[in-house]
């Protein structure tokens, strides 16, 4: 008896193994795709993580990569230094304000545009709007900053010249330099640049809604707004929730439209610094310009921890309230 | 079927979204790779075997200054140096101020590094060969005077470089034709407009403001004063008698303190604020990230005064003339106030390092030895003898070109290969009898006081004091603009006080204590 079970056990294991390989063979194309993704993550996301060690050490760049391991431990010194920085409050406030503003304005914008576009019956016009609204996505922020200068500069800016010429304003608007305008400038330009691009996804969601639902609703006497409210919107809900969770996970980087760093770096200057300095630009400056890698690593680590907390909690809330979630 | 269609659409949109996410991730990493690639390139140049054409050795050189006007080893001067030394350089000019720190961190250094901002960091036995060792071993005839050695000797007893553009007070006093370098502040004004205003005198700061006011009234479309982004403060700081720049030290009665706490500083800030409040300067001027914008204003006739360096009138005039303009600029006197003072605490500009990755330290130190010889110094600074200059028996070169003609100077590689040189030679390049620059520099020499011992207050990289100073300087950069652009004088004064308080909060007092200790230790170097 005993021997028998052992034999069958072995047999079962080999059988399982061959079955596993059989299945694997069948799915090899899919595995190849997954494997590539995993290698990508391993090389670019996981391997560099050993650098986090720096945040707890007194690392000097002249010691090279080896120095990350050999330098002296200093505990939470760099974290304390950041919390005690005279600009700490301002920097954190700017980061949060910019991120929240972007969620508030940049997240609903493509949903609205998608709904509006889906109601347009003239196909040519629809395609035209779609094309020009997603084209700005392909312009890099450096170029956008250059364009913004040509448009908004107080002295040579076209917008200021036009407004002055028309007598609408009597003093040029210092949009690029006044700290009061920076958040608006950043949010506005991000919406302009990325709205059309994200509309594509939401349009795809709308396209997936069964047209017979609309017909039925029409027969029941539902008007346009009622159809949008009761059919289009619920039909997009799944996509909206997934995108929202991803957005919240990257909220400190600017969420859906990203680019907090690029904007703060390119539009930021010493005049609008009180509202344009954010955690990422600050870490970049102290890290690369001053060569204080340890301090910069600590600052970025704090930000990453906040992001992880945000993505887990938003996922949990989404699961509880709407039933759909990322994981 | 239909349910399936909905699912398919959702799946499709998900796939699309994930591709986008992946693509954006790729985009980010591409940037990283690009940076790495840049560093790798320079590494490749180091490992490249030296070119053996006519026994000419090739060394790689990294210039840590993105604005550097010469980017390649070419032009008559470079060719002549190669002919004399058998060495040619493969030059890489920095794309920004972060490139050298990154190269240090990744260990990919070229044979030679020429830097100003990272002298402290490069003076490290892990990164560079000490010159004293190499001289002893390979170039025993390479003699450097004791002051220069003392200035550059680090705590470990070695010196790793010697900066160019440095001259002691005696050297300058003994060479009356050495008037100084281009790197000194100056303001040029439109001669024609000044004439139309009836040539009002500009001999005090108040008169200068008055003239700006007249310009604004008569030419409302003109900007009364445009400033180069790197030359905003210097000229005016001197007029108020401030003895150092915003991130420097000043000394009074044997005690050293940080420049922002000088009593004269507040007057300077009030003045700058007044310029802004009365509409003589643009707020945008403080946000320029490009040093060409001010030149465009000046040379396109949209600005009355142009703040830059002593050579700015000559430079603008050449540009205006080449563009077919008919107006000219003239320099303001170097001093327009009774309290004008310039303290030279400079130890020079930049120095060359022979890195530990250097494939031929012997050839490298001999190369520098040649540049440091009288012949080498004159060749780099003035050009090829006979072709570009002849020696005047009075003790200065008769130049056959205009040293303010940037195109000519740069294309021939004059001056910029000064990997080793000194302030006396460089000062003579500015001596062109009759040039506006020469006049401005000679005026300046009269009110310059030398305190090189202040320059010896140097911070060790990665030390706590260095961190404090960096943080204070960064804070000043942000806060000073709030003072300049304050809406009233009271607000400006309040912002000034906040700035000083912030500095104290960051640790200014600790930094000043340390500076005083260092100063007492090192000041005897010059008082032998």
UniProtKB/TrEMBL annotation, chain A:
GO biological process, one term: transmembrane transport
Subcellular location as annotated: Cell membrane; Membrane
Bilayer-crossing regions: 32-56, 96-117, 138-159, 195-217, 238-257, 293-318
Keywords: Membrane, Transmembrane, Transmembrane helix, Transport
Any one GO cellular component localisation term in the record: plasma membrane
rRNA-binding as UniProt keyword: no
Key word Protein biosynthesis present: no
Topology in membrane: Multi-pass membrane protein
Principal subcellular localisation of the protein: membrane
UniProt-listed InterPro entries: MetI-like, MetI-like_sf
Source domain of life: Bacteria
Family: Belongs to the binding-protein-dependent transport system permease family.
Protein name per the record: Putative aldouronate transport system permease protein
Organism (species): Paenibacillus catalpae
Lineage per the UniProt record: Bacteria, Bacillati, Bacillota, Bacilli, Bacillales
Automatic annotation (TrEMBL), chain B:
Source domain of life: Bacteria
Pfam family, one: SBP_bac_1
Position of the signal peptide: 1-24
Classification lineage: Bacteria, Bacillati, Bacillota, Bacilli, Bacillales
Listed name of the protein: Putative aldouronate transport system substrate-binding protein
SUPFAM superfamilies attached to this UniProt entry: Periplasmic binding protein-like II
Biased composition range(s): Polar residues: 38-48
The keyword Plastid belongs to this UniProt entry's keyword annotation: no
UniProt-listed InterPro entries: Bact_solute-bd_prot1 (IPR050490), SBP (IPR006059)
Region (Disordered): 33-52
Transmembrane segments: none
Alphabetically ordered keywords of this record: Signal
């Amino acid at each position: 008896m005993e021997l028998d079970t052992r034999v069958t056990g072995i047999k079962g294991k080999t059988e399982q193994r061959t079955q596993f390989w059989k299945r694997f063979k069948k799915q090899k194309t899919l595995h190849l795709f997954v494997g590539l993704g995993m290698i990508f993550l391993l090389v670019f996301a996981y391997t560099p993580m050993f650098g986090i060690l720096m945040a707890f050490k007194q690392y000097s760049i002249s010691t090279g990569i080896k120095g990350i391991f050999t330098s002296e431990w200093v505990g939470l010194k760099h974290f304390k230094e950041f919390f005690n920085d005279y600009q700490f409050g301002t920097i954190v406030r700017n980061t949060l304000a910019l991120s929240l503003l972007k969620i508030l304005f940049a997240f609903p914008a493509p949903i609205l545009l998608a709904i509006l576009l889906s109601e347009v019956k003239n196909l040519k016009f629809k395609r035209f709007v779609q094309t020009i609204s997603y084209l700005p996505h392909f312009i890099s922020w450096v170029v956008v900053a250059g364009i913004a200068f040509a448009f908004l500069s107080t002295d040579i800016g076209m917008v200021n010249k036009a407004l002055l010429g028309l007598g609408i304003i009597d003093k040029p608007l210092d949009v690029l330099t006044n700290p009061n305008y920076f958040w608006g400038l950043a949010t506005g330009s991000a919406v302009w640049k990325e709205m059309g691009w994200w509309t594509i996804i939401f349009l795809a969601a709308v396209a997936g809604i069964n047209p017979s639902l609309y017909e039925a609703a029409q027969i029941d006497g539902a008007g346009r707004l009622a159809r949008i409210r009761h059919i289009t919107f619920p039909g997009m809900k799944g996509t909206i929730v997934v995108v929202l969770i991803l957005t919240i996970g990257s909220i400190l980087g600017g969420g859906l439209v990203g680019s907090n760093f690029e904007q703060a770096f390119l539009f930021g200057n010493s005049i609008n610094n009180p509202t344009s300095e954010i955690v990422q630009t600050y870490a970049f400056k102290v890290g690369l310009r001053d060569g204080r890698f340890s301090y910069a690593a600590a600052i970025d680590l704090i930000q990453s921890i906040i992001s992880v907390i945000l993505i887990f909690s938003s996922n949990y809330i989404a699961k509880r309230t709407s039933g759909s979630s990322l994981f | 079927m239909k349910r399936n269609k909905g699912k398919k659409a959702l799946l499709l949109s998900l796939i699309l979204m994930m591709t986008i996410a992946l693509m954006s991730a790729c985009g980010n990493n591409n940037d990283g790779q690009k940076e790495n690639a840049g560093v790798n390139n320079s590494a490749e140049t180091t490992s490249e075997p030296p070119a053996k054409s006519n026994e000419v050795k090739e060394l790689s050189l990294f210039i840590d200054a993105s604005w550097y006007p010469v980017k390649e080893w070419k032009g008559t001067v470079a060719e002549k140096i190669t002919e004399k030394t058998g060495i040619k350089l493969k030059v890489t000019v920095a794309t920004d101020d972060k490139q050298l720190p990154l190269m240090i961190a990744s260990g990919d250094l070229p044979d030679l590094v020429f830097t100003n901002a990272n002298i402290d960091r490069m003076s490290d036995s892990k990164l560079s060969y000490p010159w004293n060792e190499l001289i002893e071993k390979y170039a025993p005839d390479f003699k450097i005077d004791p002051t220069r050695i003392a200035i550059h000797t680090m705590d470990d007893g070695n010196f790793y470089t010697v900066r160019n553009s440095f001259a002691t007070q005696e050297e300058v006093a003994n060479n009356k034709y050495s008037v100084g370098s281009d790197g000194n502040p100056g303001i040029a004004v439109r001669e024609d407009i000044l004439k139309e205003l009836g040539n009002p005198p500009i001999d005090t700061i108040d008169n200068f403001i008055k003239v700006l006011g007249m310009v604004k009234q008569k030419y409302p479309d003109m900007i009364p004063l445009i400033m180069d982004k790197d030359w905003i403060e210097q000229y005016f700081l001197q007029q108020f008698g401030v003895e150092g720049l915003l991130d420097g030290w000043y000394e009074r009665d044997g005690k050293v303190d940080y420049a922002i706490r000088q009593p004269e500083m507040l007057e300077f800030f009030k003045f700058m604020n007044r310029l802004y409040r009365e509409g003589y300067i643009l707020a945008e001027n403080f946000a320029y990230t490009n040093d060409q914008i001010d030149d465009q204003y000046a040379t396109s006739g949209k600005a009355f005064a142009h703040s830059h360096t002593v050579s700015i009138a000559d430079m603008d005039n050449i540009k205006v003339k080449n563009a077919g303009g008919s107006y000219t600029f003239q320099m303001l006197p170097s001093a327009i106030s009774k309290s004008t003072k310039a303290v030279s605490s400079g130890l020079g500009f930049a120095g060359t390092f022979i890195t530990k990755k250097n494939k031929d330290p012997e050839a490298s130190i001999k190369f520098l030895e040649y540049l440091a010889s009288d012949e080498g110094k004159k060749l780099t600074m003035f050009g090829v003898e006979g072709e570009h200059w002849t020696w005047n028996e009075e003790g200065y070169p008769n130049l056959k070109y205009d040293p303010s003609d940037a195109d000519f100077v740069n294309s021939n590689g004059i001056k910029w290969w000064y990997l080793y040189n000194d302030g006396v030679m460089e000062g003579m390049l500015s001596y062109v009898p009759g040039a506006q620059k020469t006049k401005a520099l000679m005026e300046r020499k009269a009110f310059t006081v030398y305190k090189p011992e202040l320059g010896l207050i140097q911070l060790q990289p990665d030390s706590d004091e260095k961190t404090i100073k960096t943080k204070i300087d960064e804070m000043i950069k942000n806060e000073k603009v709030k003072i300049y652009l304050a809406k009233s004088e009271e607000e400006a004064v309040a912002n000034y006080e906040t700035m000083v308080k912030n500095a104290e909060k960051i640790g200014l007092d600790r930094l000043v204590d340390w500076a005083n200790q260092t100063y007492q230790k090192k000041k005897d170097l010059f008082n032998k």
